[in-house]
Amino acid sequence: MQDYLPRRTKRQQMHRRLRYLYLSAAQWRRQVPVWIAAILIGLVAYVFALGSHLSHDLFFKAYDASPYWSLLITPAGLALAIWIMHRFFPGSAGGGIPQSIAALEPGMEKLREYCFTLRAAFGKVVLTLLGISSGATFGYEGPIVQVGAAIKYSLNRKAAQRHEGAARSFILAGGAAGVAAAFNAPLAGIMFAIEEMGRIFDMRAGSTILLSVIVAGLTTFAINGNYSYFGIVHVAMESKQAWLAVPLCGVLGGVIGGLACRVLLALSQRLPGPLHGWRAKQPILFAAGCGLALAVIGIASHGSTFGTGYFRARDIIEGHGAGLQDYGVLKLISMFISHISAVPGGMFAPSLAVGAGFGLNISQLLPFLPQAMVVLLGMVGFFAGMTRAPMTGFVIVMEMTDSSDMLIPLMATALLAASVSRLLTRRALYEGQVRLFLPQWHAKAGQIDQPPART
């Protein structure tokens, strides 16, 4: 009996060890698709960013040859994008962020199978780059949210279909990894997931998001190195007078951003007059008309309003904003027109460019302060006012400009702008777009017999 007990204990210990090793190996096998998806998101984000810059350069080569080429290129490009979208990639429609947030709602299995396939992700990349190469005011940072979510969901489809919580975790993690990789801003990706998409944020989603953001960020870092999206800005609030810029940028950014949010939501719901019927009946011709309007504005602004706005915003931050005093207003109008064209594209980078333009205007009211400092506050003020996402706003601007010394002023400006915006508009931008999108989707879902073939 004395010999039997130790042998039995040893067998139990061996059994527990083997069981632990088996469960550990199974857990690692489940993590492999998560890692692979995060690496792919980082690669796609790099390709998306590179393609965006090449598309921008391609358009301006034609524009430099003759500004009037834009009267042909922009309408034709937007019309072609709408035709391709309706013909080949219907699941790629929209900006990407509202669709990703809507997919987190319970009972959205059909939406996930429709909009979060590799086919839809590929179409999103192609159509967004086509819009940018046409000179429209689009960014790739919004679409990369849907692309990242689609990659993460598609490569983990079996687990997502078995567990509702897992499906939402993959969509959250993919969207966060996309933002982090696109901007080289890991904290901004996490903040975006929590603030904009994280209605069901839990510990499981948190660990998946963190792993995805790290792996996607390391992938882009390995390819492109460490960089700041808008360069490095060496500026700080060194005097008491400098704090005057915080309430000014916060209030004005909240007012302008809040009004921009109201206009965007109104345009998303219904266009004024006969434009609504025109877009519904002749979407390709309507997109061409939007392209013509963008080309006229672009020629009148000497080309400054074409494209994402990245290079103009960087010029303004670096103090090369001569002749761009009307840039904020014109870029905002271009963003509205690009949005109503229904061509897939994002508003992250354009909204920051608009904020830089208004920041330049505000800096002229405070000539005794460093222009770069006021421009940064103007960017975060408008972004937070339009999206009502203050945490994402101040983190993303801080990481994109490597301006950690400005953290407290950026934070204060973002919070003030979001509070002012709340007085002007009932719903935040993406929340409002989701509420408008869901009824449209439910009507469309009833007409879909089955989701498109998985790719």
UniProtKB/TrEMBL annotation:
SUPFAM superfamilies: Clc chloride channel. Keywords: Chloride, Chloride channel, Ion channel, Ion transport, Membrane, Transmembrane, Transmembrane helix, Transport. The chain crosses the membrane at residues 32-54, 66-85, 116-138, 170-193, 205-223, 243-265, 285-303, 336-358, 365-386, 406-425. InterPro entries: Cl-channel_core, ClC, ClC-type_chloride_channel. Its main location: membrane. It is found in: Membrane. It is a multi-pass membrane protein. Pfam families: Voltage_CLC. The keyword Transmembrane helix applies. Gene3D superfamilies: Clc chloride channel. PANTHER family: CHLORIDE CHANNEL PROTEIN CLC-E. This is Chloride channel protein.
